[in-house]
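sorry for the late reply, my laptop died twice this morning and i had to redo everyting from scratch. anyway the thing you sent over, i finally got around to it. pasting the sequence first so we're on the same page, its 343 residues, then the predicted structure underneath. double check i copied it right bc i was rushing
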Amino acid sequence: MKKLFTSILMFAALCIHAQHMGNFNNKVVDMDISRANIATSMGNGVAYGNPYAQQYVPLQPSSILNINLRSLYNVDATDYTAVFNIVQVGKTAEETTQLMNDKIELVKKELNSSGFQGQFALDMISFVPQYEIEVTKKLFSKTYTEVPVGFELQQNLLISYKKDSDFQKILTACGKAEVYNLVKVDYYVKNLEAVYEDLQNKLLAEVTKKKAYYEKLGFDMSKYDVIMADKKYYHTPKDFYKSYLAAENISMESLKNQKSVTTVRKPTSYYYDPIPYNGYDVVVNAAIIKPVIQLGMDLSLRYTLKPIVKEPVPQPAPVKIPNPKVYVVSPNGPVDIKQIPNN
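ok and here's the structure:
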């Protein structure tokens, strides 16, 4: 009896632990979900490489030294902007505009009453009349005429905020005003230059370590010329959402047994899948619990041996050719100088 009870407890513990995998992983095992955005060119796997498909390639030694470094910085946004699309129709232009203003003012009133400190902005999209076809019957014919029956006004409401908790207030206020179309949420970082400077310093420290490593291997880095290339990139969370369908496939047993099948709408699930860390030399704030802005900086250095400069061979000093002269003194006193030929 004790063994049976222990076995039941162990089985229950395994079941509880398995729940942490989530619906996505469970469906992947059975291949019952749509993985088009992951297994094909639609997903992020192609852009950043599939970490599970890498194969070993033997290293090829070279006289050229390469230092390729990648760094990634996960940083929380300091400012957010939520964009809501509002479409309003009315019989007249004045009525349409008034209904639109009433919705926007209700959103502002609800947020201000809750102590909201954000800002509001409007982006005008379109304001056009709507038409219907009016049929005029005559004795032997019909005439179809377009006549204006109302107006359609479309605007985007932009709401900026600084804290995640403010977003719940925004959703509540927009729901009361019947504003439901959330277009996107933009993320911003104020101290962007400081983040990139921090990444630069960390990359420089890694370069120093790499050069010291090569020095220990016997390479004299002072005998190498270097060329370099670098780049920066900036990714917001909306760039890295993936989708999957959390639903089982239709069973064929119902068709065999001639039972009716009622199809239902299967909602598409989304999840945040940030840039993976494989291949990165520096990762700052690796442990994240919510969508973040991911800043990156890559650096590539190539060291090649300096060309050997041949020292000039010393040439012997030129031999001076003597130029002898003879002084002839006559008895009368004059001096005559005679040049003696060298040969």
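Confidence is low (pLDDT under 50) at residues 11-21, 31-47.
thats about all i looked at so far, will dig more tmrw
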